[in-house]
# Entry
Amino acid sequence: MNISIRTLIATILLFFAFTVNAAPLFDQSDELSLSLAADFDTMFDEKDKSKQYPGKLGYENSDGRKTLDVMLEVRGNFRLEKCQVPGLRLIFPDKPDGLFAKQKKLKLVAQCRRKGDAYQDYLLQEYATYRAYEALTENSFKTRLAMVTYTDTGSGNDPWTNYGFLIEGTGKMDKRLGMKQVDDNRVSRKALRGPETNLFTIYQFLIGNTDFSLLKGEGEEACCHNAKLLDSGNGFIPVPYDFDLAGVINASYAAPPVNLGIKRVTQRLYRGFCRNNEHVPSTLAHINANKSAIYSAFMNDRIREKTRKKMKKFLDDFFALTGDPKKLERKITGKCR
# Structure
């Protein structure tokens, strides 16, 4: 019997995955209370993604408050330039125990601006997009919401407190799922597994997000833009991230890519592949079967009521479309590429 190298690697990784816990940080979903101290004044002024800055991470442990040494990096592109507080990466130089046991690197999604109810909603809405996708498939990033108090040791200004959320590291996700990240800069459509890719693209249509690519990474980076590809041994599976420009959020600073021919992020545009149209019925059936979990994720009562009403209407429009064959053909299967 011939076994491909990819299949063999995937089988070995899957074996080890059963012995690797997702780590205690993502075992629970209750809100965390974190503190983060660093020279944010210098960090946000320099905006140097190649530089690391020392910091202190505090959290409540079972035996009281605990503080860890961390190194911090700024990350992102759009938000690094446009936001008062960009995305951060937490790096653990020592092997922590307790809540952060087994962690090496974590992304922290921060509130773009320190003040403003709308910006708090944007953060919580993006968190909801991760939670809703996690309800649909295990091929997703785990997340954990936190209330974060930031202390700027550089400026000496008063601390500020905002919501944020932590995202599971790609390496941890790989091991949990028993797959390996694809490092290729470009991939072909044929290399992507049909059912999982179709779920990815229809979910992006559901939330009104067009800010992604499934065929090429940014510059020379690994594929893809706002997605990680995992090698299942029988095709590549895309896992999405970075939803801040989605129509369901409709942030004031959000705009669609100029080459797509739409003017607003609230205009849904299907960017799925025609070769996967055969999977559309089963994908929509799966999404409809999990409709209540999707609504539950977005109808988070931490989000203002007026924002929840707008999101509900946006979601309602999608689910109304799924029951209309003519609209499905016009908006999805007939719009494939």
Observations:
- The mean pLDDT is 92.
- The radius of gyration is 20 Å.
